[in-house]
Amino acid sequence: MARILLAEDEEVLRMLVVDTLEDEGYTIDEACDGEEAYNLIKENEYDLLLLDYMMPVYTGLELIEMIRKDNNQTQIMMLSAKSQSSDQQKVLDAGANYFMSKPFSPIQLVQRIEEILGDAE
């Protein structure tokens, strides 16, 4: 099954997403800030990165730019309450593949991940 990194600084949301995705059979690594996420990305291979927009140390946007500068082509989905079209476009222009607005339901997230990783399974 696919390996996913979740970078989210809100502990309750992180726990909910991890529990939901593990119940679906995914292997999940967690990071609570952008620096921890970046270190995990350098050490491991992931099928998908789920990044929060607003995190300590490095924002999700800064993290995307760093990842792409390293020529890492892993699929990236940004999770953010900043859901205006200009914010979404900024994220996609930085190199994210997908954007999901907060709040979202766990079912929505699972369905979206299945769509993204369906061909990778």
TrEMBL record:
<keyword id="KW-0238">DNA-binding</keyword>
<dbReference type="InterPro" id="IPR050595">
    <property type="entry name" value="Bact_response_regulator"/>
</dbReference>
<dbReference type="InterPro" id="IPR011006">
    <property type="entry name" value="CheY-like_superfamily"/>
</dbReference>
<dbReference type="GO" id="GO:0000160">
    <property type="term" value="P:phosphorelay signal transduction system"/>
</dbReference>
<dbReference type="Pfam" id="PF00072">
    <property type="entry name" value="Response_reg"/>
</dbReference>
<keyword id="KW-0804">Transcription</keyword>
<keyword id="KW-0418">Kinase</keyword>
<protein>
    <submittedName>
        <fullName>Histidine kinase</fullName>
    </submittedName>
</protein>
<dbReference type="GO" id="GO:0003677">
    <property type="term" value="F:DNA binding"/>
</dbReference>
<dbReference type="InterPro" id="IPR001789">
    <property type="entry name" value="Sig_transdc_resp-reg_receiver"/>
</dbReference>
<feature type="modified residue" description="4-aspartylphosphate">
    <location>
        <position position="52"/>
    </location>
</feature>
<keyword id="KW-0902">Two-component regulatory system</keyword>
<feature type="domain" description="Response regulatory">
    <location>
        <begin position="3"/>
        <end position="117"/>
    </location>
</feature>
<keyword id="KW-0597">Phosphoprotein</keyword>
<keyword id="KW-0808">Transferase</keyword>
<dbReference type="GO" id="GO:0016301">
    <property type="term" value="F:kinase activity"/>
</dbReference>
<keyword id="KW-0805">Transcription regulation</keyword>
